[in-house]
Predict the 3D structure of the following.
Amino acid sequence: MLDRLALHKLLVITAFFSCAPVFGASVLFQTDIPGPNAIALCGKTLWISSVPTKELRALDPSTGKTLEKMSSERFFGLGQITALACVRDQLFVSTAVKFRGTEKLKEYEIGLFKAALGPPGTGKITGVESVRLPGKSLVQDLFAVGSKTYLIQGNIFVSTDLKQWKEAGVPDSAKIKNIKFDTEKNPFADWQESFFVFEGRYTKGLQLKDGKLAFLDPFRGNVVIQEDKNYIKWGHWGMRPGNLMFSKSITPLDGLRLAISDVGTKLISIFSENGDFLELVGKDGKLARFGYPMSIQSQGNSLFVADFLDNKVFALSAPPLDKVEIETEPDNDFLQHNLFRHPDNQKTYAMVRCLNCHDGTERFSLEKFQLDRTHHPIDVEVKKKIDLPLTEDHKVSCFTCHQAHHKRLSGVVTGHFGDQKKLAEIPHMLRRSDKDLCLTCHEEKALKDESHFGIKSKKMQKFTIDVRSCFQCHQMHSGEKHLLSGKVPDLCISCHTKERIPKSHPLGGEQDVSCISCHTTHGAKKSEHFARHKTKDLEGACLSCHKDRKPLVGTIEHLKLDPKKKILWNQQEAVCLTCHDPHKEKQSTSKACLVCHEKQQDRSHDKNIAPLFARLGLEIPKEIHLDQGKISCATCHDPHGIGTDKKLLRKQREIIIQVCSGACHEPKGMEERFDKYHDKQGKSRGKR
């Protein structure tokens, strides 16, 4: 009689010769989490880290409901969480932070922390303890075997006390030769083995039944099984069912099977411990492709998947081996069944190929790949002809700007203040010097007299600032709005100093007003202070927000256009600047009026009526217009003349008279005083 595993293998072999076998699992839940990268099941809680939000989330593993959200910085410092692991019911969290030296980007600062958990199922962390590490590489995985703890950090280390570590002596998978490649059925089976750059390093490990250990080599597509001092290797690189293209994570499934996530095929492959291929699983339990199944965990028959690019965590329930129903995906070309041909794989392949190393397998750069963050788009079609490589459908990809497989070129790099250095090798494997690379596509950004380039000033700072490169203001990966390398106004005042921060015009607020709300460094004239009124997407700098003022321009004396006057701004908006200067301290309304209306100087009546009304126990009508609690010219007159007469009088005549008579003046004769206010200042005041 066949056992369960043998029976299942027989069913799979039968189905394989018609098409790819499918898992047929059911979906338990899917939970939205921005950019999940690491996952661990510990203390009856599913722990997930999010790259863009720098959060650690705790989920109920049966429902996917969020139990807790916590800032990773609160417990684990400023670094990104790169790995999670559960060892003896304790949660271990590894972090990495990149830091810059004086010359170049240095390596990471690595941390490993043991988190004390609250009651099971609560998602609480009650304390954190730092753990000593043996190396400086990224921590890839941590797991326990009896009293021993295994750590994968470049090499494989083992410890009994988490203080003293020694190398475990596991040979690189490249040195293990007991594997046969059937190149007749799969001509690429031994392809990865021939690459000398792949030394056979491991990134994931786990304990199997009977004391065996399993290690995953993602570059060669190998799984190495260790039993005592014997090592058996299985796994072939490839794009067909049963092959591993870009394997990423491994987990045991119900003690009889191994699940391996593959970001190249965007599916999860199920194997026996001996390497016999059993079936495939997608995010719907069948063959729907994941976005980037970066990390997986299991509990019994449940499989949990952190999908980095789909921004979701999936939970699937696997049927028992003897209950599996083989479902199929139609394919007439079964001998050449290529999982990579699927359109969902092709759509993001160029990015995934780079992400495969930058997700922490070699370097941790996940924040550069978040599709919902501000970074240079990689799927934009370039309609004009350029001499940079594009995808087959003429879209920008990582390799448009970076060249991973060619000699690094010499060129110029530019510092923030315009200092330049000529280097034999440009950093980041860029194809050109910074400015030249950007202007290959964005040549209009450097039009003479309409860009920030060429500005040289000693007035802004104590030293000379020379604008020479896009990189002085822009950052292509993980930038702020408009790919700016810092937040506005901080980025602007790094050159222009704090004196240029608007002192009267508010910043922020509901409309998110900032320097770039009024100014743009591209597509506007230097002579007009880079005013945004020239841009296509805005009606003007001032009038883009103050739309109600636009119909009034030219209709009253205050807003007249003077064709003879030479101005350094949009003429329609220059009238605003006659009275308003957002970069200077706000002056009183009356003071601004008296600049032109000098004859009214001796009749100014800036009376602070707020304390008078308070003393009398009266409330100032909300309709009355005061300037910081004081009566001003604008109390009676509307300088913008909205719906008023030639004198620009406001319509609140009765309310104004009521306020004047309520605070200081006798009601008798107030009508006449109001009408003849500018003819003769009333001197008599009522007494109360």
Notes: The first helix runs from residue 4 to 16. The chain has four domains: 4-178+188-350, 374-501, 502-586, 603-675.
